[in-house]
Amino acid sequence: xxxxxxxxxxxxxxxxxxxxxxxxxxxxxxxxxxxxxxxxxxxxxxxxxxxxxxxxxxxxxxxxxxxxxxxxxxxxxxxxxxxxxxxxxxxxxxxxxxxxxxxxxxxxxxxxxxxxxxxxxxxxxxxxxxxxxxxxxxxxxxxxxxxxxxxxxxxxxxxxxxxxxxxxxxxxxxxxxxxxxxxxxxxxxxxxxxxxxxxxxxxxxxxxxxxxxxxxxxxxxxxxxxxxxxxxxxxxxxxxxxxxxxxxxxxxxxxxxxxxxxxxxxxxxxxxxxxxxxxxxxxxxxxxxxxxxxxxxxxxxxxxxxxxxxxxxxxxxxxxxxxxxxxxxxxxxxxxxxxxxxxxxxxxxxxxxxxxxxxxxxxxxxxxxxxxxxxxxxxxxxxxxxxxxxxxxxxxxxxxxxxxxxxxxxxxxxxxxxxxxxxxxxxxxxxxxxxxxxxxxxxxxxxxxxxxxxxxxxxxxxxxxxxxxxxxxxxxxxxxxxxxxxxxxxxxxxxxxxxxxxxxxxxxxxxxxxxxxxxxxxxxxxxxxxxxxxxxxxxxxxxxxxxxxxxxxxxxxxxxxxxxxxxx
Length: 568
Description:
The protein is α+β, with helices and mostly antiparallel strands. It has 20 helices and 26 strands.
């Protein structure tokens, strides 16, 4: 490490802390000139960075005098002068605290940037931090995030529209949704008069005005809330489109669902499986995906929520990015962070969507139950949220196999389904590999695996412990030979051709995840004798993916291979 260097930028920089070299000191050839007490170039650069930090919820700190190589160069910048120049360069919108401190025997300046109450512009731009970088953001998105931090709910605010503006056809659609649930309380609510129904749905203020949620759902906008496009193949011509303004969202949702139903074919199953037939894309997953793309979107834009139905793939893209700490890596388990709480609660009350963020769980569960991949949900530029359901070939063998798994609760438990699908695809699992799939900690993932230890399929044990694991290493489990045979019989019974899991694939996945593999471990997973799998590991060694883990005679007790992968 260079003299005066800190650990690393990754160790010190975070969303609310940024290391900054004093601008204007580094020459083209890399030479560093002396620091000046009043460096206008540095002040201009720091004004941009300080505004970015202040625009970030919670504000943060700039440490001035540490360069990109994490070397402490120090700075002679006058704190009061710098504080005043940042104030002037931000059009008197930002006052920072500037403090000089000693770091590794060098003077550095720490700027505390308080959270802004209004977006701060420098050079006409509003920027804030995403992870450790500053990115440009539009003012409306900034205000939306600000409202969220103070608990403001746009959808709960009065709209200025009277209850009589609610479209009768939209209210009738709401009644249909309530009655379709067949819940006693919902059916009773559907029998109420219009005014009472809207009041009990909490979309009417004490002054008799519709809330913004009420207008979205029952009145509509000049621009449509949903834009549905159906194509037979990706990139093909549109064969159906639903895009009509001036209607309530409940009406638009009903029409889009009807269009999808016509383009979502029924797949017939052998007698005795489920109800004998399933849709190519599970309707409950489709509904949750679309509704989530409406109730959690940014309604400050006229842009519709786009629903693209290409072949067997449904992609929903909605305005507005993730909020409240939600990411693709935690979206299943993160506590609900509704952007429009009143609108979210309205659609839950109509029995159209799950309450308190359970919708993503349902989307994942219903897709996995029929053998599809879990939905892919990500943030894309805009920002927008893009959720994709890929309903490729229906895995009838998996459905038949799952129907024989007991106890029955396993078939509807999301964690159990994800672990079981991992076992079917790879034949083994441990807590470390299950944790990211479940979006839970390894300890929680271990609990999900333990819930399958006593499970059976077709009357035989489902799991067994992997043998040959070194003392102190993480415990792992594999499908029993009988369970693998049950899966094969299920495939034959329904005529499903499954791509086989080879011993080489098992060996590679185990070694890559755990850093080593022995013949005993591989033989245990694939239910074979150790002498019959040695050639698999030797083949991987010859290709440079494995290397001997211990000197000495091969085949002796305790011999194993190290995983080297791309290192070779």
